[in-house]
Design a protein that fits this description.
alpha/beta; Rossmann fold; 38% helix; globular
Length: 248
């Protein structure tokens, strides 16, 4: 099974589990090891207005909808939108004059997200099927691109960032929460498809992330650490959540 198939299978299981009203394990480990990554990312006020299944399906490492400082009337695209939590929150922030797109490649997640949209009664949302390396939107069509712990999953991040730059309007914002590597990882970890699907092996090093954004044409690049992860193994301190921002 290749990396993309592993990712589809993993997140398809996450969606199926969330649809049953349960929380799936995440980030390549059990619930205990994942808790520091996914816990306490959203305020009670944010999640109380959403379907429980949208919250249960969340596998994020930050809250890009808050960090992106979304404004009424803006058009937002969420790369790897999963169960739709960040799309639904974005839609509320941009209001009826704005719109939020969610892009995902996993059928189970898309079905769950659309059901969550229906339950939430949010109309200014559209979920698209596709891959973040080939965004199915026209050039210069969105104001803000967000993503939550997904870009690290791609095997072609240069293509993802080029596509992101393409669909943003001039002056548009890249506002992403992602896992970022703080030092080199062991070769055994880098070759492990499950660890890649678990948001570990595919993480970019901070300066590499900055360089790829600049190469794609972005300016005002910033990487702001939000959480450093400590474990009792060789990965202790090697990874962090970060808010990565840039401007077209």
């Amino acid at each position: 099974m290749n990396i993309q198939d592993t990712i589809k299978a993993k997140y398809g299981d996450v969606a199926t589990t969330a649809a049953r009203g349960a929380k799936a394990s995440c980030c390549g480990g059990d619930d205990a090891s994942c808790n520091p990554v996914t816990s306490d990312l959203y305020s009670n006020g944010e999640v109380s207005a959403l379907p429980l299944e949208a919250v249960l399906a969340s596998q994020g490492c930050g809250n890009p909808t808050a960090l992106a400082e979304l404004k009424p009337g803006e058009i937002v695209l969420d790369l790897g939108s999963g169960g739709g939590i960040d799309v639904l929150l974005s839609a509320r922030r941009v209001g009826p004059a704005g719109k939020a797109y969610g892009l995902d490649m996993t059928d189970e997640m898309l079905a769950l997200a659309r059901e969550n949209q229906r339950r939430a009664g949010v109309e200014n949302v559209e979920f698209l099927r596709g891959e973040i390396e080939n965004i199915p939107l026209p050039d210069g069509s969105v104001d803000v691109v967000i993503s939550n712990c997904v870009i690290n999953l791609s095997a072609d991040k240069r293509r993802v960032l080029a596509e992101t730059f393409r669909v943003l309007k001039p002056g548009g914002r890249f506002a992403v929460s992602d896992i970022v590597r703080r030092r080199a990882l062991p070769e055994s970890v880098l070759r492990d498809a499950e660890m890649w699907a678990g948001c570990v092996s595919g993480a970019l090093e901070e300066n590499e992330y900055r360089g790829l954004l600049a190469e794609a044409g972005f300016r005002e690049v910033g990487v702001e650490p939000t959480r450093i992860y400590h474990t009792d193994d060789e990965l202790d301190g090697a990874l962090m959540s970060a808010f990565v921002r840039a401007t077209k």
